[in-house]
Each structure stands twice: as C-alpha cells, then as structure tokens.
Fold these 2 entries.
Entry 1:
Amino acid sequence: MNGEIAVARIVTFDELGPVGLICIDNPPVNAISHSVRLKLVDVIARAQKNPGIKALLIMSDSELFSAGADITEFNRPQGEPSLQQVQTAIESSPIPVVAAMRGLALGGGLELAMACHYRLAHKDAKLGMPEITLGIIPGAGGTQRLPRLIGARAALNLILSGTPISGLEAKVKGLVDEVAEDDLRDAALRFCERLVREGRGPRPTCNRTAEDALDEAEIASSLLAHARVLKGRTTQDLVIEAIKASKLPFSQGVAIEAALAQKSLASRESLALRHVFFAERESGKLSGVSSVDAKRTQPPAIQRVAVVGAGTMGSGIAIAFADAGLEVLLNDNDPASLIRSREIVHSTYASGVRRGRITQSVADERIRRIRNAPALDEVADADLVIEAVFEDTELKKDVLSKLDSVLPPERVIATNTSTLSVTELARATAHPGRVLGLHFFVPAHASRLLEIARTDHTSPESLATAFRVAKVLKKVAVVSRDAFGFIGNRMMLDGYFREAEQLLLEGATPAQVDTALENFGFAMGPQRVSDLGGNDVGTKARVQLFKRESRPDPYFVIADRLTEMGRLGQKTGRGFYRYENGSREAVPDPEVNNLIEKLASDRGIRRREINDQEIVERCILSLINVGAMVLEEGIAARAANIDVVWTSGYGFPRYLGGPMFYADTLGLSQVWQRIRHYQEKLGYYWRPATLIERLASASSGFEQWDRTSASR
Ligand code: 3HC
Ligand code: NAI
C-alpha cells in the first residue's frame, strides 16, 4: 500500500496499484453527512488528477456501507456539496467508479452507489430505500436511477415497501453487477482490476432509460400490496409522481424529484415520522443518570434468561429471548402449564415455518434453546429472571422473595405485572435495587414496545440491564415510573378507552366509535381492541386499580357488564360485537345496543346523535390530557416517550407522531380551549391538566417542554 492522501478519518483514500480505494468511515452508521460529502468530492477530484489511478472504488471497512443521508441535517439548510453534487462528480468521472456494499446500504447510501458506474454487494448485504418510513421520497436521484436500473415497477415496489432486499436479490433485479460470497474488499478489488484490464470505462446510470413505464393498473396493485403500512399516508403519491418523471430526460426527472422531495420534507407527515424516529432512539437511553452512575452502568452480557410462570406471557417472553439467540429456562409450579407452554412454543414456531418466516432447522434450534426448569432453584445461574406468574400481589411477593434468596444479589429480577405496584413487590426482597418491571405486550415475541417500570429504589445498573434487554430483543424501550398502568395503560384507561365508553353511553354505537377512530388512523378501534384482548383482562385490571385508587361511576360500566355476562370478546364469540363461527369479523349486535341503552338510562344519561368528529376529538383530547398528567406526575420523563409508547404499542398512527406531538400540531391553546369546552359541557372528569394550561398560556408546547427538561 502506498501513496496515502492525507484526509481526515471520515473518508480515507489508498492507492492500490491502479485502483484508488475510497473508504467512508463516519460512525455510527456512515451517514452521508456534510463532512463526508466534502471529503468525497475532494478525494475524487484529487484522485482523478493522479494518472496512475485507473478506477475508483468506494466502500467502507465498517460493518455497513451507509444508512443514508444524515437525518439530523434535515431541519437545517444542507451545506454544499449536496449529495447530488457528489453524485455528479462521480457520474461524470472520466475513470470508472465502483461501489461495493456490505451490511446496510440504505436511502442516500444506496443512491450514492447507484450514481457509481458499477456496483457490487456482499450476498448478505441489505439494500433498500427506507425514506418512505420517514415520510420523504428518495431525494438524491433514487426515483430516477432506480427505475433505470431495475425498471419502474420494481422501483416503485422497493420504495413503497421501505424494506431492503438482499445482495443476492439485488443481483437478480439488476441493481448490482456482482455479488461477493465472502471477502467483499477482495472481490471488489479484483472487479476493478478486471475493468481496468478490459478497458471498460464509465457507465453513467443517468444515460440509461427505464425499460418499463408505470401504468395505472400496476400503480393500483402496488398501492394495494402496501395498503396496510400506507393507510392514511400521502408520501406514496409523491413517490409515484417522481417515478413517472423517470421517463423524462434525466435532468428534467431529477429536477421534478428535487421539488417533490422538498415538498415531502416539509410535510407534517415527515415531521411526525422523523420525530418518532428520534424519539424511539432517545427513549432507549439512560437519562437522568449521573456521569458517575453512567460509568458504573455497563451491564454484564446476558446469555441465559429465566422466566417464572409459563402461561401466555411467560411462553411469549421465552420465545422472544429464544428468537434473539439466548438460552431460556422456563419455570412453572404447575407441570400441566409447562406442557401447555411447550405446545405454545412448538405451534408458534410451526406457524413461522408454515408462513415461510423461518426454516425448520432455525425453528428447531430456537425450540432447543428453551428448557424447562421445574424447580425454582434451577434458575439460580440465570443472568436475568422475569417473573410472569398470576397477577396476584401475595403470590408475586412470594416468588420474588424466593428468587431473591436463590440469585446472586447483582442479578436483575423483573416482574411482568401490568397493574400491581412494583415498589410493593420489591419490598418482598432484600435487594429492591435489582427489581424493576418489564412490561411486555401480547404477543410478547412480536410486539415492539417494552415498558420498563422503575421504582425509587431501582438501581442504574438494573435499568441499564433492562435497556440492554430491549436492545437484544430489538424492542423499543420506554421507562415509566412505577404507577398504576405505567404510561400506556394509564392513558388508555383514564383517557382514550374511558371516553370511548362514555360516548357509547351518550348515544354512539361501538361500530361508530371504532370506525371513526380507525378513520382517524388507529390500527383498530377501542371496542375491537377490547374484544381482541378479552374484556375480562380490562375488568381484572380495573379491579386492581380500585384497590389502589378509585374512579367514580360511570367508569367502564359497559365493558365490566359484558365481562359479567361472559361476553369476553373474540375468544367467546361475543363481546362488544358478535363473531360468527370463529370468524374475526366484528358484527354489530343489537343485544349490546340494548345493554348500553339500559346502562345509560340507569344513570339518567339522555342519549343523542353523536357525530364522528366529536368522537375523534373527545377520545384524542382525553388521551392528550391524561398524557399531560402522566408528564406532570413524572411517570413519563418526556412527552416524546409517551409518543413512542402510543405509536409502538397502542396503534396510534405513527404518521401523526403520537398523541403529544399531535397536540403540538393542533396547538396547545386550541387543545386547552377544547378541553375547557368539554369540561363545561360534561363536567368533572374533563379537568384540564395544569401542564397544558401552563404551556398554552406561555404559547409553548410539549416539544419545547422536552427540550428544556434536560435542564430541570
Ligand atoms: N442519519 C443520521 N443519524 C442516523 C441515521 C441517519 N440516516 N441512521 C441512524 N442514525 C443514528 C441514530 O439516530 C443513532 O444515533 P444515537 O446513537 O445518537 O441515538 C445511531 O445512528 C445508531 O442508530 P440505531 O440506534 O438506530 O442503531 P441500530 O443498529 O439499531 O439501527 C439502522 C441502525 C438500521 C441504520 C437504523 O438507525 C435506521 O434505520 N436508520 C435510518 C435509515 C434511513 O432511514 N435511511 C434513509 C435516510 S433518508 C435519506 O437517505 C434521504 C435520501 O434519499 C436523500
Ligand atoms: P397465565 O394465567 O396465562 O399464566 C400464569 C402462569 O403462572 C401459570 O402457568 C401458572 O401455573 C404460573 N404460576 C402460578 N404460580 C406460580 C408459581 N408460584 N411459580 C411458578 N409459576 C406459577 O397469565 P398471563 O396472562 O401469562 O399473565 C402473567 C403475568 O403477565 C401477569 O402478571 C399479567 O398481569 C401480566 N401481563 C399479562 C398480559 C396479558 O394480556 N395476558 C399483558 C401484560 C402483562
């Protein structure tokens, strides 16, 4: 190796015979930040002046090629050179430029590679255009070059899905010229040497034409294929318009793309989605821990996990850890439960194999990772224990106290309680610092959210372990202070679901409430959710609630009555709706309407016509209002954490940014006035959170509140 050009580490250059090797090195994800663009242009220009260099190779020595444009630059003017200017420098290079991708090549990273004259990828690389998940369209020629490389139809599908494809698939589609089975660098250098030997020169993508054009039928079928993720969204319309422009000469196409990209970047949808992107990353960090504590909080690796209680949740949690490659010990004091759990584990993996998600050998390996441990002291050498026995304070205390005596004191003991006081459960141990709540959702192996419930005694080390668990399981972590319902269920019960029930008593029907909120953007309306999870589950939670705090009548009188009647939801074929012959289709049931009318009349409520707008406004405002209370009470540390909980665990539309972000977009003074309006109309329970009043009168918002929270 000779002739190293002295550039800062962010982009390095090496002369390897006739090949100039440019390596991007911008941790953590090789984002194409301004400094990277500057160096790339500089190094390319200098290399072109070197007569000994006959080909350029762009790659990275790190685990990934690039995660794309630097998203942190989106909110400010982007310095020159732009990514497009870098691409022009590459595409117009008189010597061929080759990109070699390993790990991830996403968004602007892949767009950079598409501007190169030739492309290689490692067979396991992941190449994709995830811009749509951020509410933007590919804005660095992606909508113009991708159709020229793989066809307009395939480009539309790749961009609308936002999901990457493998290096092998990319080769089949014509996105890359060659796939490396093993050593990418070696394969890429040999490829470049071959180009030089064979005298193959530059091959600008912009000079090609797309082989096909989009017709309306194909557009409709692509939209249908991605309908679930695109529900309520608008970015796809801009993507389609941009791809259609790829039929024009390149310079016209990129100009149209640039205008559409700018429009998408400024959209509310994009602001909301970018907010959630950063909120999810922020919520998974240990805030409020002093630097001294932070040094102590490097958690030990977790290799073996024990789960105590092999019911619905315990089995799901075991599967989640086995999926992540960990060893799991499953304990239950009822041998029949262990047998049932085994069946759950087997049938879950069999379904994964049937659906083509995993191979049989992967399934077998994961099943082998879960071992039964019928005696509690067998869990003693686990790195972490999660308790998931029945929701009963005395039982859980007994289990925790036994675990406390068998486990070394530094190991974390987590409880999966959803309603009990973690603080009280921790009192049953001699080491309350190692106790916290890990609130998994159903199904535990597939749900994205993990609420971490900390007590006043939970140690920073235990919290750090909980964050590591979330990372290992690829779940989004949010810390909640120990309080009834933590963040999500508290807001659901006291806010959103409660208002939905109230609306039923006042005159709406379950179908009307559900449809209005589904049209707002929720994945599923509240009554359908209740029927899916089981009305008895909510009733049991409320029984626990009344042991801790009380709520005046009416408070879920309909759902609790349905539970008493055995109308538990889908599992009994009857709930807020009827479900015929095991079908999941919710059919409105006049019997339920009669019940609601009776419960309303018992309370002297005069029913009336209620329109969809009122349904949505009241449900969302009460969600926001209780969210603000959760903030003032210190249960959630940041408004953005609440947004993460609701977008990742409760079906709130991500493209609206979560309830607190949405409140900001409405304007808090408007929010406050409408809550006051309902307080005057409906009375006591519409008490506005003082935080909303305070922020509204200061013309501030939750985002601002979060920003200043670091200094509080
Ligand atoms: N720009 C700036 N920062 C980024 C980034 C990006 N494109 N992608 C990730 N980061 C940051 C994260 O914010 C995080 O920062 P932090 O440590 O300060 O919180 C850090 O990199 C690590 O990210 P993760 O915690 O998410 O790490 P993971 O290993 O779990 O995931 C990833 C890595 C899969 C790359 C994930 O970060 C990701 O999906 N990133 C976004 C990818 C994307 O959407 N790319 C397209 C960007 S838009 C674009 O390119 C526009 C173009 O068309 C012009
Ligand atoms: P489940 O009733 O399906 O399973 C509980 C299991 O605990 C049973 O297999 C039982 O045999 C076992 N068990 C009881 N006493 C035990 C002991 N002393 N030692 C070992 N095992 C014992 O209950 P589920 O639904 O799995 O709930 C478990 C926990 O998860 C509860 O705290 C619940 O509140 C919580 N949770 C439940 C959710 C749900 O929707 N089901 C959601 C989130 C949390």
Entry 2:
Amino acid sequence: MQTPRELHFGTEIILRAEQLAGHSDDPDGLTVAYLTRAHQTAGAEIAGWMIGAGMQVRIDAVGNVIGRYAGRQPDAPVLMAGSHFDTVRHGGRFDGRLGILAPIVVAQHLHERGERLPFHLDVVAIAEEEGLRFRTSFLGSSALTGQFDFGWLDQPDAEGVTLRAAMCAAGLPGTEEAIAACALDSRRLLGYLEVHIEQGPVLLERGLPLGVVTSIAGSVRQRVVVTGVASHAGTTPMPMRRDALVAAAQMVLAVQRRCADPRDAAKSLVGTVGMIGVPEGAANVVPGRCEFSLDVRAADDATRDAAVADLEAEFAAIAARCGVQVRCEQTMRVPCATCSPPLMRRLAECIEAAGLPVFALASGAGHDAMMMTRITDVAMLFVRCGHGGISHNPLETMSADDADLAARVLLDFLRRTAAQVGG
Ligand code: HGY
Ligand code: MN
Ligand code: MN
C-alpha cells in the first residue's frame, strides 16, 4: 500500500522547483550563473532541504552541495545521484534541478519511514555545468572527477573577475589543493544516477513519461575570433573593407550548411553559433573584430570531429576571401559517453514495475553524467518535457505526474540496488 507521502512526490518536486526559481540573477528570467548571489542562495536553499531530508551536508571547494543520507554502516559504499543547479540565461526550472530535487524528496521519504540503505546515498547539487559565466562547462563534475583544469582559475568573466577571485568572494578557498581535494574516491562508488528532463520532443511524441538514456552525445566548443580592420563606415569603399562581421556571418552560414548535411543526419550531427559579438563595435565603424562561439555535437566522436575539421578549413577559406584572419580556440571537448548496461537494465526493471513501457534513447544534450563516466558506472533517467519538448527556454515544463513517476522509479532503483548490495 502507498503511504500518503508517496502520492505527493511530484507535487513536492514542482513546488520546490518553483521555489528554487525564485533565486535568479535576472528578474526577467531564470538566470543562475556560477557563484553569483542568486547561485549562492540557491545552493543554501538546497542545503536546507537536504538537512530536512535527514542528510549531512557539506559544500566542497567549488561550491558543489553534497548531502549524505547515511547508510546503515559508516564504511558503506556510496551511490551518488544528482545534477546541476546553475542555469543558462533565461533557462527552465527543471534543467538540472529535477536531478537534485527528485533524490532529495525520495531521501526525505526514506528518512520519514526510518528506512536505511546498505549504502550511503549522496545527493550532489552540482555547482556549474552550463558554462554561462566562465568558459568552464562541467566545472562542478570536473572537480568531482579530478579533472578540473587549474588554468581556468585565471579566466575572467565578462566583468573581468577571475574565476579564482569569484571563488574567494564566495568564501571558497580558491586554491589548487582545495579543488584537487574535491575528487571523489571512485573505489567507494557504486555508480551515479542522473534524473533529467529530456529537453527534446521524443518522449512527448511517443506519449511516454520516462526513458532510459543509452549514451550522451559528445561536444566540441570553440571560441572563434575573426580579425579584420576597423575603419570609417562613411568613407571606406565597399571593395576595400576588411569587415570581420561580414566574414563571420558567412562562417555562421557555413556551420548551418555543414551540420545540416543529410549524410550526417543519422548521426545526429548538430552545430550552433549561440553567441556572436563585435567587441567595441559602433554603428559608424566597419567591424574590425568579431567573436563567436561554436558548439558541434554528434552521436559519435568521429562524425563530430570530421565536421569540426571541415568547418575550420571552410573558415580559413572564407577569411582568405574576405581579407581577414580567423583563429579557432577550443574551449571544451567532451567525448561521447555510454551509460552502464547493468544500471540501464535495473532502471528498465523499475520502469516496467511501474507499469510503463521501457523506451531507450540517446541524449543530444550534455550532462554531468558524461564526466562521471570517467570514474564510475552511470545511468540516466529522462523525464518527458512538455511544450513541444522545448528547453533552455522559460517555457520548459513537466507535469507533476511525470515528476512523480520519476521519483517512484528512483525509489525503486535505490531499493533494488540495496537488494543487490545486501547488508
Ligand atoms: O549544453 C548542454 O547540453 C547542457 O545543457 N549544458
Ligand atoms: Mn542545460
Ligand atoms: Mn542540464
């Protein structure tokens, strides 16, 4: 028989997601960049919920909030569940946050029942995944997996504040030693489970609330800098211009053309220029410099790398034609990641036991789970996304019923894992 508490997992998740969305850098849309005031207060709110769920909480040197629902024995192994709580600019309230809230409400349920597990359940609210403030996507999970790039510490944000200074201002040590100490002991880990909104239309179109993720597309990001010559907009004849923005515009169209090649459609190749700017630009100056971001992803690394190589060659050809220079700097490279077949099977059993069809799908979006595959077995549960599957948009939504099903499957997953671990 279900307890009344179990009936409200989904409602509880939706309410908390709304409450968490109250912490924002921007009153006009949910924006939580790494280590801003809103980011810190959001982390504190999550920590409070973890404590309320009977967890011991610690905050590591990069601001990851880690709550432990202690197992029966102090030396028990650890199952980790989590996701990120930073957002894109004007993002949705479930991206990342669902993967924190679902295990918290499930832990609270276990706590209220006095049900202990033969492993520690560590719920991790990962401080940074989106790369909004610094060019540091997966910062939180990089620290957890011992892959933090210390070169990032000197990187400035748009206001010139370095990552190290931002850490110190937030009360974090900002030292390499402290960050290195964030690395988890992989020998203690049973695995990592991430519950995440699908951020696409696949489950919605099939009428399915949940899906088991098989693999996560790898991505390459670049900062592309085009340098021409700034000159007077009224006096520079059109044939004499070395306009960086005109060259960049052609490069953007080259990205669209190359990544829409139907021969790569089956490999889910996608390419995006999400940011473009003319630093120090003015209405009456021919652009002398233009910078843009490039994000290329595919279901396999070879398809993605071939597209990136073609684009670099094409950018060079465009630059030569336009009399400008182009420099491509890689800011991120994450290989495709594969979920663990045994953990996928266990998730599938839970979905089946909930009376739902089992459906497996690949993820086109990146997730902290990609980094975690470097140190442990990983599983991901996708939850149906409403509004046509839109995400990275304030319209992102999910139903309380779907959130509820996800939490129940998670609870069952913990119990099945407990049965396997024994003790
Ligand atoms: O970009 C991504 O796929 C992720 O949402 N950060
Ligand atoms: Mn996202
Ligand atoms: Mn996410």
